[in-house]
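quick q for whoever's on today - can somebody do inverse folding on this one?? i tried earlier but teh output was garbage lol. tokens:
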């Protein structure tokens, strides 16, 4: 299971502008379902304001930063098997080895991933999912979609998310207390991700047209993810830089 459905929606809504932003004059995203998408976007935003944002602010108020970082590290570590499979499917042997090394180091020395000795040893962290894998294989993105609770996506990434979810080992592994573990992961992951993203969410809401801003940035960021950030020119040079923000579960 990924961090959570709601947290994924928040993360996807703003992660594009966290690493790069795009011009308002960029090529339009294919959005034939814009009427439906806008309604779902408004629903997701309302859900965030009423439920997730207050929970995230409470979480920040009762915890200290080292504890929150430990939670983030733990959740990222849980996602490493999915990242590994997708690096292999994309034909990237070095990132695959990095991912295995990170998982082994952080699971053992890092005490189930709570600590991150792999980063201290300069082992790169990669973020690959099956939507990216399909893009690497040449599958077109299809129409832009906003999914209830999940946020911005497209036809290709929706299929990729479904595949990642089905094949996530934690979703079919059986052990004592597995149901309770998955529920806890869902709730804690949602609140943790939303707490990290609070400043960026507010920045998105201050945009003149948040829906268009998110749509354009999501499309450009996914293209950059598929190309591993390699583009002929920087289409984001003239807009604010949100690089200081770190998004673990958009992995």
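ok took a stab at it. sequence:
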């Amino acid at each position: 299971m990924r961090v959570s459905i709601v947290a994924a929606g928040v993360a996807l809504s703003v992660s594009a502008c966290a690493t790069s932003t795009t011009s308002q004059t960029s090529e339009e995203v294919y959005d034939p379902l814009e009427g439906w998408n806008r309604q779902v976007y408004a629903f997701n935003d309302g859900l965030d304001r009423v439920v997730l944002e207050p929970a995230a602010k409470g979480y920040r108020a009762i915890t200290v930063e080292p504890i929150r970082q430990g939670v983030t590290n733990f959740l990222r570590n849980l996602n490493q098997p999915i990242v590994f499979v997708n690096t292999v499917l994309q034909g990237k042997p070095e990132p695959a080895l990095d991912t295995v090394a990170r998982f082994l180091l952080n699971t053992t020395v890092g005490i189930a991933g709570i600590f991150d000795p792999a980063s201290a040893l300069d082992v790169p962290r990669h973020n690959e999912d099956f939507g990216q894998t399909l893009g690497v294989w040449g599958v077109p993105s299809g129409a832009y979609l906003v999914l209830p609770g999940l946020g911005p996506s497209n036809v290709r990434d929706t299929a990729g998310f479904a595949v990642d979810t089905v094949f996530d080992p934690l979703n079919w592994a059986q052990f004592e207390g597995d149901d309770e573990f998955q529920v806890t992961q869902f709730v804690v992951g949602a609140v943790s991700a939303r707490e990290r993203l609070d400043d960026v969410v507010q920045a998105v809401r201050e945009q003149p047209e948040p829906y268009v801003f998110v749509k354009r940035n999501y499309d450009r960021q996914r293209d950059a993810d598929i190309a591993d950030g390699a583009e002929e020119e920087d289409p984001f040079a003239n807009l604010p830089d949100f690089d200081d923000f770190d998004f673990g579960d958009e992995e």
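fwiw The CA atoms of residues 101 and 235 lie 34 Å apart. also The first strand starts at residue 144 and ends at 147. so keep that in mind when u check it
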